[in-house]
Design goal:
Layout: H1 8-15, H2 23-29, H3 47-62, H4 66-78, H5 83-92, H6 95-101, H7 108-116, E1 120-122, E2 125-127, E3 139-142, H8 150-153, H9 155-162, E4 169-172, E5 177-180, H10 195-202
Antiparallel strand pairs: 1-2, 1-3, 3-5, 4-5
């Protein structure tokens, strides 16, 4: 399956937003858009550019390609409620994001790799599709075979430094299990997102 493999730090500098934890340190030293002629490309400008950059930022933050993101936005717009909030909820409920949010991976890219390599089961069945959308009552567990790996043996240490308590999931690193207990609230999505700009971009 196609995916964006360009350096996450470079993407972060392009969007002016730390898309992964390691990007914070680099961005503190290097400011501005990457590239030889970055000083010629001015941030801001038209409303269209502002909307585009917000869309690109969120798309890259959650690791989706343009076609995937546009399809998700279309679904969010058709659902009841606010389209922007629906979009963020769908993104948060992806299997790879859930693994990251529960502290079972240090980055979303790492979480996506763990899921796509089949290290998890969903309600007892092995999965390898990072985009699966979870619902209340679902249970993600590390497969018995995978629990023996060095990575998962150290899972409690990874989770202890990377998790923030969330109302919609229960993380249990000791038993290598994640339980979905509800739906994500708007304020529990990543900070610094203006979803209305994304809705306006696709409404043109």
């Amino acid at each position: 399956m196609a995916r964006d493999t360009s350096p996450i730090v470079k993407q972060s500098r392009r969007e002016g937003y730390a898309l992964a934890p390691k990007a914070h340190k680099v961005m503190a030293k290097k400011t501005g858009i990457p590239g030889e002629h970055s000083d010629m490309r001015v941030r801001g400008g038209s409303l269209y550019l502002t909307q585009l950059r917000e869309k690109q930022k969120v798309r890259r933050l959650y690791g989706l390609l343009e076609k995937q993101f546009a399809k998700l936005m279309k679904e969010a717009a058709k659902a009841d409620g606010l389209a922007g909030e629906n979009l963020l909820q769908y993104l948060e409920r992806r299997a790879d994001n859930t693994v990251y949010r529960a502290g079972f991976a240090s980055t979303r890219r790492q979480a996506r790799q763990l899921v796509s390599h089949g290290h998890f089961t969903l309600n007892g069945r092995r999965i390898d599709i990072p985009s699966i959308r979870l619902k209340p009552g679902d249970i993600l567990e590390v497969r018995a075979k995978s629990q023996k790996s060095d990575f998962f043996k150290n899972l409690e240490n990874i989770a202890s430094i990377s998790t923030t308590p969330l109302s919609w999931l229960k993380s249990d690193p000791k038993n290598m299990k994640i339980e979905i207990t509800g739906l994500p609230k708007r304020e529990e999505a990543e900070a610094g997102i203006n979803e209305q700009l994304i809705v306006e971009y696709y409404s043109r």
